[in-house]
Write a structure and sequence with these properties.
The complex is a heterodimer. By secondary structure, chain A is an all-beta fold. Helices cover 0% and strands 55% of the residues of chain A. The chains are: A mainly beta, B mainly beta.
């Protein structure tokens, strides 16, 4: 199997709060984890690529100081939305790829619904 | 920059018939293609993949076809079942971009009993 656990599944908080989302690979080691954002009825947009032990690579237009990513181990990556505002409300999904050579699918968590009031 | 396109936002099929979902891509450097299935409020679930050295890959009721010259891939589901009703995303990646995946916009499949 390839199970990815994402926590929490739903967060409602006030504007200005920082929110941390965890992504864990439960039964495999993930050298690389990915963070996506999905707006209603739209596709998944890659925000950043997180490599264990190094700095994350952010996609164009994604503020790295706003979306802090830490990938401290081969099974855990965290995304912190700092000083969240209503426009940050979205569905955030992480994925992890097995530590292996060659092509491997990404396995996704169940996502985090973030609502900023 | 829409490198992966799914031009049909929705598809409705009768139970037992074939479902064909289509996907086009523009970047010839992509060499690995995947299909994911997604239910509301859940993360995508990996279905099937194909590398660019093949033109067909089959797994049970699911078959993915790849036409590199046309930069087109399709997912066939035979026979379709009501439980297949979901949003299907195609994705593409390549060694050139560190295997980062680019997703299409998704096609909502509805299989009617």
């Amino acid at each position: 199997g390839a199970v990815v656990s994402q926590h929490p599944s739903w967060v409602i908080c006030k504007s200005g709060t920082s929110v941390k989302i965890e992504c864990r690979s439960l039964d495999f080691q993930a050298t690389t984890m990915f963070w996506y954002r999905q707006f209603p009825k739209q596709s998944l947009m890659l925000m950043a690529t997180s490599n264990e032990g190094s700095k994350a690579t952010y996609e164009q237009g994604v503020e790295k100081d706003k979306f802090l990513i830490n990938h401290a181990s081969l099974t855990l990556s965290t995304l912190t939305v700092t000083s969240a505002h209503p426009e940050d409300s979205s569905f955030y999904i992480c994925s992890a790829r097995k530590r292996d050579n060659g092509n491997q699918p990404q396995h996704f968590g169940d996502g985090t619904r973030l609502s900023i009031l | 920059d829409q490198q992966v396109k799914q031009n049909s936002p929705s598809l409705s099929v009768q139970e037992g018939r074939i479902s064909i979902l289509n996907c086009d891509y523009t970047n010839s450097m992509f060499d690995y293609f995947l299909w994911y299935k997604k239910y509301p409020a859940e993360g995508p679930t990996f279905l099937i993949s194909i590398s660019s050295i093949k033109d067909k890959n089959e797994d049970g009721r699911f078959t993915v076809f790849l036409n590199k010259s046309a930069k087109h891939l399709s997912l066939h589901i035979v026979p379709s079942q009501p439980g297949d009703s979901a949003v299907y995303f195609c994705a593409a990646s390549g060694i050139y971009n560190n295997n980062d995946m680019r997703f299409g916009a998704g096609t909502r499949l509805t299989v009617k009993p």
